Amino acid sequence: QVQLVESGGGLVQAGGSLRLSCAASGSIFSINAMGWYRQAPGKQRELVATITSGGGTNSADSVKGRFTISRDNAKNTVYLQMNSLKPEDTAVYYCNAIIQERRLRPLFNYWGQGTQVTVSS
Questions:
Q1: pLDDT value of position 73
Q2: Regions in the chain scoring below 50 on pLDDT
Q3: 3-state class of 25 per DSSP?
Q4: How wide is the angle at C-alpha 62 spanned by C-alphas 5 and 76, nearest 5°?
Q5: What is the pLDDT of residue 35?
Q6: d(Cα 109, Cα 34) in Å, to the nearest integer?
Q7: Does residue 83 contact residue 15 with C-beta atoms inside 8 Å?
Q8: 61: Cα separation from own chain's centroid
Q9: Which end of the chain is more exposed for a tag (fewer CB within 10 A), N or C?
Q10: C-alpha to C-alpha distance for 73 and 82, rounded to whole angstroms
């Protein structure tokens, strides 16, 4: 069984930084794309940033130049470095990964439990 466990959320003042981590564990043959999404109260979940197994990245316009996604394939871990945080970045941040548990088996989409990020003004 695959699990994604996030860490690194918390409370920070505007202009500050946080680093989120998400480690995948369990029965894993390969991991395709990994990413971060967020959901603020009363809003839909939205993409923050994604990264392919080869290191190609994509991010939302609202975080470009402030957030950086990276991954360590040896550790099955994805990171989100968040700098110059703004109050509008406040949300629950969810880790996402597309994982193949066994060779020749289908890939499935997995989600972490979410970690709260709160940015005070």
A1: 95
A2: none
A3: strand
A4: 25
A5: 98
A6: 10
A7: no
A8: 16
A9: N
A10: 20
Phi, psi of 34 (to 5 degrees): -130, 155
Backbone conformation region of residue 6, classed left if phi is above 0, alpha if psi is from -120 to 50, else beta? beta
CA 57 centroid distance within chain: 12
Side chain identity at residue 100, one-letter code: Q
Cα–Cα distance between 16 and 27 in angstroms, integer?
A: 36
- Assign residue 88 a region (left: φ > 0; alpha: ψ between -120 and 50; beta: otherwise): alpha
Structure token digits, residue 52: 């392919």
State CA 108 to chain mean position distance. Answer: 16
Max Cα distance, the chain (Å): 50
